[in-house]
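<given_protein>
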Amino acid sequence: MPPSKAPAALTRPITCFTFGGAHEKGLRDCAVEVPVNIVYAPVPYAVMMATPQDLEDFALGFSVSEGIIDHPADIRSILVEEVERGLRLVVTLASDKLQRHLARNRNLAGRTGCGLCGVDDLGALPVARAPSHGPGHLLLSSVRRAMMALEARQTLNRLTHALHGAAWADHGGELLFVREDVGRHNALDKLLGALLSAGVDPASGFIVITSRCSYEMVEKAAMFGARALVAVSAPTTFAIERAEANAMTLLALARADGAICFTDPAFVTDDLQSEGRRIA
């Protein structure tokens, strides 16, 4: 299939849990998220995570918004290439605009949007680490307790209605750390910093996030060593793939009445019929 015709959504197997009830398997459409390497021939510029649709429009809009070109006519051609680890957008600029671009010597290090900070080539994408998790289970009662407590603990968001939250819950579902930020990546980074400063054992609980569950959020949680990630919003296909690669249990669309497990449902235990049972 040509890269420009790649689907924007793919169906993935899921397991639906109802707190206190039965669970069932099914299918769900998930937004596709792939690494897109933007190359201003011949120099790689950035790797952005994007839906593989309307990529020519994306190349043009990105080039304008980044100040690389002034007008559409400054682009001579746009080529979408399928490569081993994603897609490559090769943008050929008019000679004067290419010279101006090269003179800027700019990169995207430190950017916290939908790209990969400091990565300018697909070969630099991180690879899955060897799983190092021990035995255990994620209790649905703990997930429910954490979700019910999270809103009240997001004090800044209750005031502004504009912040994302990231929290650490112990095996019983008690929220021990909560951090907030206008950027979803920033909120999670703040949480991980707090956990590392406090010497928290990654095996002692799970992470909860209020934001969209993209690749970056999964990878950051995996870098800390978290065994499970619970998200309020839905994951992308690449987030699911990275959770699988890192042996991480991913629950998403978590609400007061249930959650959907996208990876490793065997790690999830429905203990709501026998309250009081905890991980040994």
